[in-house]
């Protein structure tokens, strides 16, 4: 018994070191972000005693960060709402309603899940250019919806399969049409899954850089992550301001993580256990 | 599609009466329902899936076909004309693309490491190492950060006089030019990718552990089996499905989500040593204006992913059935 106890502590020490290695880069960046340029050049490691918060306002105001931030918020919000709406509609139909071709559709959806964006990006850019959707908000939103819809449908279908058929039948006997069942039963009962999937979709869209880089070439249409890639060039001689810009871009995600960690983990694992 | 066949009922007389159609479908035919309602009901599943199907077909499946077709046409002056396998021949002759393929080989070699790290950590967390709750929360957090953010942070960490080299100097090593040395840069970026994503696999492993038969584990412990033996004989066989999932998703992740890191950390350099197929596609499409060549590279990437996925599934399935 004693030996096993010792063994568990022996594992805990390297794991604690690894945990430190996991958080240190962010702590280091946060510390750098509140230094003055002079402090940074003199000593980049020592903890700051009086934080120099002006870096954040300077980064926010100077290089269009506010604009990029707004672009990201608009695109991500609309994309996630559409993803959840279309994903839950299709998930409901594929899990609870029997119709001709439903299993083939579900398989097609699974297949689409395995087409990475890199494989279709060249023709997609051309389709967007031909339809005039390139460099527009609707174009980027459509691309995000198309990219993450198979995943959303897959998880919503798996979730709705766990709802007993009896509940749906009872709702029908009460006089609900299919649309009524969707609105009154599927939306409320799907809420936990919608929350997890919605958070994951939001993270995917927020964190994307390739799709936005490809489909939104104008500087004023940059999303926040594309904006971050240009920070380094602008602040090559002002690392603290660079660090504070990076932190501003990471902040929404860190907040979501702090408060909704369990839902994120649920979404990630739902794909593995139900697949 | 059967949608086109049935037009919506317009006859008002028909709509007013609740008629025999209901009897055909007793579950759906409800008192007071008109036949227009019945028809709307029959169409409902198609209406519900139609928008999703349209978007997926138009913006994912159709571009896939278009891209494969595109890869057999020419660029520039030969735009639109069929050129057979010319683009593929050019790819094979391009040292940058060959480097990209070689780097894919390295990723396959490193894959077991990228799976073993979260697997081992999940095992310890499952065995309730002191502080396991904290570890679980901390390890997962980089997984939610964008590769762009991670890359920017590690540009600071890996600088020539940055924290990592300073730490190495403290124990008498280095400094190492992590991103500037062509022999090292690809491993550095891969290491950062593993740092940023092992939390995802960890969470998946932990979900797998929650389905593990604890009686089996207790029996092995009673028999005094050592931890490595427990992992090898109990945990790995019981988690074969989870392992299979993690192997495939980790490989897909390595092939398709390192773009942000490459873009921010190395831009493919130094000397083109950190090219991956996805980055090559981007450069040919975005910078070199060679969309047809880029399409050929995309098609090769897709084939690699298919082959890797099928191989892994069949190898792991065989390994699982031998037990």
TrEMBL record, chain A:
CDD domains: TM_PBP2 (cd06261). Coiled coil: none annotated. GO terms for biological process: transmembrane transport. The chain crosses the membrane at residues 12-34, 68-92, 104-125, 137-156, 193-216, 239-260. Keywords: Cell membrane, Membrane, Transmembrane, Transmembrane helix, Transport. It is found in: Cell membrane. It is a multi-pass membrane protein. Pfam families: BPD_transp_1. PROSITE patterns: ABC_TM1. GO terms for cellular component: plasma membrane. Belongs to the binding-protein-dependent transport system permease family. PANTHER family: ABC TRANSPORTER PERMEASE PROTEIN MG189-RELATED, ABC TRANSPORTER PERMEASE PROTEIN MG189-RELATED-RELATED. This is ABC transporter permease subunit.
